[in-house]
Design goal:
Elements: E1 5-6, H1 9-17, E2 25-27, E3 30-36, E4 46-53, E5 59-62, H2 69-81, E6 89-93, H3 99-102, H4 105-112, E7 115-119, H5 120-126, H6 137-141, H7 148-159, E8 168-170, E9 175-178, E10 181-187, E11 196-200, E12 205-209, H8 230-241, E13 248-251, E14 257-258, H9 260-284, H10 290-295, H11 308-325
Parallel strand pairs: 5-6, 6-7, 7-8, 12-13
Antiparallel strand pairs: 1-14, 2-3, 3-4, 4-5, 9-10, 10-11, 11-12
Amino acid sequence: MGAHQAVDPAEERAALQGGIPAPAQVATGVWTLPTEFPARSQPLRYTLSYVLLDEAGGVHLIDPGVDSDANWHRLEALLDSLGRAVADIRTVVATHLHFDHLGMGSRVRAASGAQVVLHALEQRAIDGEFGDDDGTRLERWGVPHARHDELARITGERLARARITADRLVEGGDVLDFPGLRLEVVWTPGHTYGSLCLRDPERKLLFTGDHVLPLLNPGLGLGGPTPSNPVADYLDALARVALFDDHEVCPGHGYRFHGLGARCESLAAHHERRTAEVAAVLDRLEHPTVWQVASQLYWSLGWENLSHHLLDSALAQVEMHIARLGRDAELEIRS
């Protein structure tokens, strides 16, 4: 299995050392805009937002990042250095609904009149069309009562939806056409149900949001309930984007890289291993809870060190792997 290679050593160094890289030119008319997380969101420090210039003086943003004054000033400063201004922004495209990608979208739209673009399924998730968590997840998973308070807030945050209505809804195969700029929409469910990637075929760039990252295994099913299994969806979507192995990958976190096919293969192998590990635990234990299954698995940080969002995501994904195996009936469900 090959490895992926960073495009910009300074960008890679910042990601590995916990810093925030400077904006960088990706290609003619395309720039990175690292936007910072609030301090509470460690270990991630920033989102890689992208600024694209068209040939008619317009500006287009991909994943504008967390809404904060500091990030707003970063955006203004980069645009000023490029001879543009916020008023020139025509489009904001969010790869998915999370606050670190879509967060500043409403503020940009209010200041510029820009159109906000989302995948149609992501808008439906925001609007609650796929339902809500019914608040029983902690009992259902068999979480010890001593950990309920820790995870209850996370459940509340999962239920809180982004309050935005997109101006344009797109689906896989649609094209965003701007003067001298063409972006193809690739539907990539898994991280969220309406996650999308954007492909610039002329420059051979693929903007992947959180679908493919260089350093992290993206969490799955983090956009609310879905009508299908996020693990299965994600594996299918990895195969879909792996076809663009000759493209430079422009992810939502970390650093830009080459070697998309190798990275997709590595991410898919991780989930196949995890499904097999879950199956082995189910074979060994009689009617375990999701918590008990998760506690028997290997975690890079150590099971005992998982807490808050990381613990919530871990439990959710173990449940998804059990569902992928079709072995839900073997669980002990506590109520």
